Amino acid sequence: QKEVEQNSGPLSVPEGAIASLNCTYSDRVSQSFFWYRQYSGKSPELIMSIYSNGDKEDGRFTAQLNKASQYVSLLIRDSQPSDSATYLCAAGTPFGNEKLTFGTGTRLTIIP
Amino acid sequence: GAVVSQHPSWVICKSGTSVKIECRSLDFQATTMFWYRQFPKQSLMLMATSNEGSKATYEQGVEKDKFLINHASLTLSTLTVTSAHPEDSSFYICSARSSQGQPQHFGDGTRLSIL
Description:
Oligomer: heterodimer
Radius of gyration of chain B: 13 Å
Distance between the termini of chain A: 40 Å
Radius of gyration of chain A: 13 Å
Strand content of chain B: over 45%
Structural class of chain B: mainly beta
Number of helices of chain B: 0
Largest sheet of chain B: 7 strands, mixed
Largest interface: A-B, 22 and 22 residues
Number of strands of chain B: 11
Helix content of chain A: under 10%
Number of helices of chain A: 0
Shape of chain A: globular
Shape of chain B: globular
Order of helices and strands of chain A: EEEEEEEEEEE
Order of helices and strands of chain B: EEEEEEEEEEE
Number of strands of chain A: 11
Structural class of chain A: mainly beta
């Protein structure tokens, strides 16, 4: 069974610090990886997508992918209170409809 | 770009009512749309995948006669919850994707409450 695992948290980080969110996946054929942010009572919002090994930066966000270790991470620099949310990691496989398998999410709280 | 509109945002209705939820991609053509359900404090659960002009593919345990999905065009998919009961109360979220490998973009969700 395909699984995506995340530490459920809560993860508390002081404002201005770096928040580090981790995710592992079990299906080795996964080719696409996404991080979504979900505020309470709202739908997920795409933060980052990553397809190749290495780092991908977008503003304060950096996604890291290591396919050999089946590991994906998201770093948030200069954390702001507005970053407080649940972060969902998702992995997609290149077959058929390419469904995404979501992790259960990590709840992040930025402490002012 | 990549805006997905979902309507309605909230539905409160009596048990036995059928409810239709619309999902539209506003600025791109969505070859594939997905329907999810999310219960409080749980992650997204995929219900079904729909491709334009084709029958939806339902996940195991999801009743296709209960949750009717129509993907009539590249910008519109609908989910109809037939004869809804209190246990169907949940947060229903659609997503749309332009092509394989591209991210799924989510609608704002529909909170369904069956009395």
